[in-house]
């Protein structure tokens, strides 16, 4: 009997210790949040991880206009997240991307950021005749890629626009005939429409009709400043290629044009 009572007391003590250990483990369990592990993460506070959010281009009853996308706050000035002094790091090899991002966000260069001559305003624009970037083969290739994605649907792969053969499928169904970018109006830099800055501006901001609606939508949401200048460079390349006799081309280029029918 003595042995039996002793074993019972020991068993009860062990059970009590086990419960205490279990409770202690549960008490510290939330402290495991964020610990590194090779196993799938454990969500102890799923309401913090999986908060409701508004996805782009979706409807919502939260805002009066029913749109999840919100307009940017007017008259705000973007700035970089870095606190580096640009003058102090200008000569550093690692600072190139930081300085380029800072310049892009601040938009201090009116010509590069807006296509305008320094001192011009949106109310009284004067567009730069020549783009402020070096035209290279890589820039033209990039411009062709962006043009084919965003411009060819209306203007066609060759930029002829309108209802002409080779114009874009969307352009033929548009309420206005898309501009023929190969026309003299868009080649002559003495005319506003023929300047590089104007082509850049329209690419980014679109073209409005007198009633305020858009004849052409702007693509600033998808085409940044660098890509807009690349598109302008490619348009100039398309213009320069117009009317060039096939006999003046390299034999390999002539063969490629014959094989593809002149299409991209």
Question: Which SSEs are present, and which pair or pack?
Answer:
Blueprint: H1 2-28, H2 46-49, H3 86-89, H4 96-106, H5 110-114, H6 137-150, H7 152-155, H8 169-173, H9 196-205, E1 207-208, E2 214-216, H10 225-241, H11 251-260
Helix pairs in contact: 6-10, 9-10
Description of the structure:
The chain is elongated and about 95 Å long. The chain has helices at 2-28, 46-49, 86-89, 96-106, 110-114, 137-150, 152-155, 169-173, 196-205, 225-241, 251-260; strands at 207-208, 214-216. The protein is 42% helix and 2% strand. Helix 6 packs across helix 10 and helix 9 crosses helix 10 (225-241). Strand 1 (207-208) and strand 2 form a beta hairpin. It is mainly alpha-helical.
Average the pLDDT over all residues and give the rounded result: 82
Instruction: Catalogue the unreliable spans.
Output: none
Terminal Cα span: 99 Å
Please bin the fraction of helical residues.
40-55%
Query: Secondary-structure element sequence?
Result: HHHHHHHHHEEHH
Principal-axes geometry comes out as elongated
Kindly provide the radius of gyration, computed on alpha-carbon positions and rounded to a whole number of angstroms.
Answer: 32 Å
Helical run tally: 11
Short account of what is shown:
The chain is mostly helical.
Task: Label this structure with key terms.
single chain; 264 residues; mainly alpha; two-stranded antiparallel ribbon
